[in-house]
Structure formats: structure tokens, C-alpha cells
Amino acid sequence: MSFDNLNDKQQEAVRQLDGPLLILAGAGSGKTSTMTHRIAHMIEEGIPAWNILAVTFTNKAAAEMRERVESLIGDTQDMWILTFHAMCLRMLHIYADRIGYDSNFVIYDTSDQKTLVKNIEKEQGISDREFKPQYILSVISRCKEKEMGPEEYRRSALEGPREKAVYAVYKEYESRLRENNAMDFDDLLLNCLRLLESETDVLEKYQNRFRFIMVDEYQDTNHIQYRLISLLAAKHHNLCVVGDDDQCIYQWRGADISNILDFEKDFPDAKVIKLEQNYRSVGNILAAAHSVIRHNTSRKQKELWTTREDGEKINYYRADNDREEADYVARQIGYMNRSGRSLNDFAILYRTNAQSRLFEEALSRHGIPYQVLSGMRYYDRKEIKDIMAYMRLIVNPADDLSLTRVINEPKRGVGPKSLDKLAAFARVRGQSIFEALIDPDGEMLDTLPGRSYDKVKEMVTVMKECREQRSDMSVSDIYDALLVRTGYLKSLEDEKSVEAESRIENLMEFKTVIAEYEKSAEDPTVEEFMAQLTLAAEVDNMDDSQTQVTMMTMHSAKGLEFPVVFIPGLEDGLFPGSRAFDDDDQMEEERRLCYVGMTRAKELLFLTSAEVRTRYGRTDYTRESQFLREVDKKLLTGSAVYQRRGQRSSLGVSSGSRDGFAKEPAYKPFDALKYAKQQTRKAAAGGDTDLNQGDRVKHGKFGEGLVISVTDSIVTVAFDTAGIKKLAKGIAPLKKL
Length: 737
Ligand code: ATP
Ligand code: MG
Known about the structure:
Helix content is 46%, strand content 15%. It is an alpha/beta fold.
């Protein structure tokens, strides 16, 4: 194979197969392309495909890499090209029993985790308002990334009420996962590491197998991922890592930038190749991205160059408000589309998922098809979660969480009380609820009242049958059986609502997912399907079938490229987020994210902001983003096609009248989220209680008035305009004036 289309440095990296190799280079310099060519070269050199392991971060990146390798060499069957999580899953499926799990363990995704934490909080009398499940889960995840169990957490943490709550939940959470033969996403990595560390023969097997290992986006590996790779590569040392310290955007999730900066320390004989030519973006885009990232102090100095033309300047538009901003973007896209650009060329990359709604609305108004890439969207739908819970139970009867989810879905008259009873009964017998239900002795069913007995029995019978016969049934047969015979589908049909209609459509669409799986798998089983699905549901899955605009967060855009990119919401407090103003590390991470976002663009880059924005229900004036101020002003233009006479930008882009920025005074943007939380708490706390006859008061809805009488629980107020009202004391939002 000739690699003439690669530059000298790239070719050098492709040919350097033995020993540790670090490819350190900026965005769009062909790191990923070099990696795929390197794999092709290996095959050409006669290295067996099954000796090769290539790891990336998202399903999309893995699929793309496999495709690219296939286009170079054809078949890639025996090659492991996958995400970290998928790699661990594969190993654990074979060896779970070595570390005390059943091989048919299930994976809990984000919303399962939340449910579990909520349940635990309820049982332990911990308020899920005060200690949000999401918060607790983020602490647990941080702990797991550092291999810190509940006890270690307790020893290391402070002893405030918050830490006590986290500890209590964490401890119970871990034992519940165990009981349910389940792992969360962090466990996949952690348990795989434990497996390789404790079982020498397993480690040796994989070390011998994977003689050549490659990791893309290495800058975003966390501690556990780093250890996994080090272990696997320890024997042959043929490890090639590829990355860009300027693109490390997952520190908040434990990614450790030092993994890339220290690679040369870990492997003193490592060869380092730097790629400096950017092939992706036109000159102005590259220059603009640099003018931002160079403000970061902790980075390896490097500058990319391109032989491409300068291209258009970067478009900047300051809209009146956030709705108008979205409308502007939609109009620009519509205009360029009519002038001949495919809708697939466009990406809108925002900082937070919440920003997508306005763009979805604006694009719909303009009749422009789009897709939102947020991974959870489809799989987070209730009906899909329900049916997945049914399927999981078939695989793993120990999964009480799934049983709890579906036992009364559709309604079978099993309320929380009956469920508690069932749970207690099962506990006494040392079984999970579902195990107890399908137990041939059947006593458990008898504890149910008549009206639910029949329905639950019917459900249990179907599930039991599916479970027993699962190796003889196809995954789609199992799916159909469950959907129909559990009564789930019928109950939706009976509802006869538009919403139920669309749920049914989604359930039908799910059959496509199953069909695709059955086509691609060697030996399709419901176990494998469920495991794959749980992984797939968490991350991006791009649908390329129709031409449409793509929207996603800048985080999920890593490694991707688009001819035209819009980055909206360039306002202090949104991007960079308000917390960055207290914390230099955070500011640098946000800046790297900005660099990632800008370098996704090949030909055109649009930046926008809104003068007035509504967030968390509150409308405020905004200030243009620090990052905008950092972009070399020569590279900006305000002359976008639909730009009005926009004089509002303090950047002076449109008018061209200002020629520099005065040093800005220290500035702290308004923290809208914090404010919204305070308001919520205030509202939840109700009104004043020490009210007396004759007090002037103000009510949120009725306005001002005079208290005419007060009892233990009732306040009677004569409102100036709303008349006399009797209100609940302490609950009604009454404030003394
Ligand atoms: P990122 O940092 O964003 O992940 P990357 O370094 O992995 O980027 P690639 O995605 O591999 O970069 O390549 C960027 C673009 O440049 C792709 O469109 C690729 O096809 C093209 N490219 C890479 N190398 C060359 C080359 N030698 N000649 C022409 N085009 C190239
Ligand atoms: Mg890449």
C-alpha cells in the first residue's frame, strides 16, 4: 500500500510500529487518519488482525475508525476497534465470575442509577432535595475513578452532613448493585482493572493477544483507563497513543491531562512525533482558534499551519435576544442551503444541552430538518426504558430495580404497599422479587389481592416462558412476546391518545434496533443485545440517512468535522460558564472546549451571542464572552448575510470603530443557576408565619392586602384588588410588608 497521500511525519508514524509512540498534535492534523493508516500498514506487514487493539472514546468514533480501516484493507473482523467501555464489557463477559459476578450481569445506565439512589435515599430518610441523586452519583463516580470504595471515601472525606449522606448512600448503592448482579459504567472499567490485576492468566492472555495497542484522544483518559492500557501494553510495549493536550475537555470527569504530558516519563524510550500541518480548516479558522487557545498557560507550545487559503473571516453576530439568535442561525442555514449547500454540512455546537430547544424550534419554523445528538434522547423515553426493563429481567431475574419498574406497568393493581410486601417476602426467602415470583412453589403470588393476582400471574408466566426458552427464541420474538403478552402494548392502544400513539411508534421503531443487532451479531442472544444496547444508549448515535442539520454539545463533537459550524451563546456566564470566573483551571478547560468547538469547522465558522437571554426562567442582559474578546479582531466580521445594522456589539465588529479593548475590570457574571435554585427554595419554603391581624401583606398572585384574621392554620386577607381570601398559613406565598 502506498501512503503517498500522507505527509512525511504522518508516514513516519505509520511505519513506526515497534515500541512506544506518542503522536502529539493539534486539531485536524490527521492524528486519527494516521492511526487508521497505521492499522492498515500493520495488516500489510503481516500482523494478524487479532493482535491489534484500537481504543477510542465514543461509539461513533469507533464505528468511523472501523469504517476507515475497512476502506483501506477490507475485512476487520478479528480486530478490536472499540471504546474503553466496550473493551471492558467484552473481557468481563468472559471472566466476570473471576471477580465474583455472574456472567450475565447487567449494566445500569444513568437513569437506573438515579432511581436506585433515590430509592436508597428514601429508605434511609435522606432528603433527595437536599442531596440530589445526581450530586451523590457524581461523587460516587469521582470516587470510583480514583478506586476509592465507600470506606476509603469515609476516611478521606470531611465529616459534614453532606459527606455522611454520600457515604451512607454509596455504601448501600454498592451492595445493591452487587445484589442485583449489576454494574454501573464506572464499574465496567474498575472491575476490568481488578480482573487484570488479580488474574494473572487473564492478563497474560490479553497481553499476548494484543501485541499492538493504540489509543485515540489519549488526552481524555482517566486514571483507570490509563492503568488498563499500561497493563495491557506492559509486555510488548507496542503502544501508540494519539492526542492533543489542547483538547482535553473531560477533566471534570476525571480525565488527567498529565497522562499525555507524562507519556515520555512513563516510557523513556518513547518516540514522539508531532504533526504540525492542519488539513481540516481554512487559515482564518485556524488562526482564530489559536488566538483563543494561546491564552492558556499550561500547555505544550505548538502552532499549526495550513496550506489552505485563508477563507472567509469568522462571522460574529450579536442578537437582541436568545430567540432571535436561534432565528438568525436558522435563516443563515436556510439561505446557504438554498444557495446549494447540503444540510449535512451544518453543525450547531452549543455549550449546554438546554440550549438546543430554541434551535430546534427555530429550525422547525424554517422547515429545516435536524437531528439532536445527545445520546440519551431516544433511549431515555419511558416506553423504551420499560421494555428494556422487561428484557433485562429475562436475562437477570436478580434485577429488582427493573422488576420494580415494570410490575405495575401496565397497571396491575400493584401499588407501593403490595410491592413492599412482595419485597419483604422475597427477602425472607433470600431471593429477588422476580425470583420469588417465578419460583414454582408460587406462594408469593398468593399474597397478592385477587384483582392483581391474575394480571401479575399472567405477566410472570410470560416472562418465565421467555426466560426458559430464550436460547430457542430470537431476540425479536422475545421482544414481541413481551410487548403483547405482558399487556403493555394493549394498554397503550386503549389509551387512544396522541401521546400513546407516538409511544407505540417508538416501540415499533425499536424493532429496527433489534433487527440491526440480529443482522450484525455472530450469535445473537438477548444477553448480548441488552449489554450492547445499554452501552449504545449512553453515547452518540448519528443517523446519516437523511440530509439534516446536526446539533450537539461541543463535548460530543470531539474528533468530528463539519464544513460549516455555528457556536452560539458566546456570553460570559454561559460560555465560559460562571464558575470559570472563580477558578483558573476551569477557565482553561472551558477555553480548550472553545478550541475544540472552533476547530470542528472546515470552511465557515459563525459565532453568535444574545444581548438578552432567559435561563432557568429568568431574563437578563448578557456580556459578550471573554473568548470572543480573545479572538484576533482582524479575523472577525459582522457582515453575515442577514446581519442588520448591528451596532450593539461591544466588540466593534460591525462598526469597525473600536480598535482595541480596554482592560476589563474584574468581572463576575451572574450565576443564573444559583439564583434559580435560591428562588426555588424560597418558593418551596412557603410564606411568613408570624402574621397578625392588621399586617399589610403581599401575595405572589393576588397582590397586596390587609390581614383581617389569623387562626392556627388559616390567614384571611382582604386584598386590595382580589377581594377576601382564606389562605393556608405558612404555605401560601404571603410576605409581610
Ligand atoms: P482531531 O484533533 O479533531 O481529532 P485529527 O488530528 O484526528 O483531528 P483527522 O480527523 O484525522 O484529524 O483529519 C482531519 C482532516 O484532515 C480529515 O478530513 C482528513 O481526511 C484530512 N487529512 C488528514 N491527513 C491528510 C493528508 N495528509 N492530506 C490531506 N488530508 C488529510
Ligand atoms: Mg481525531
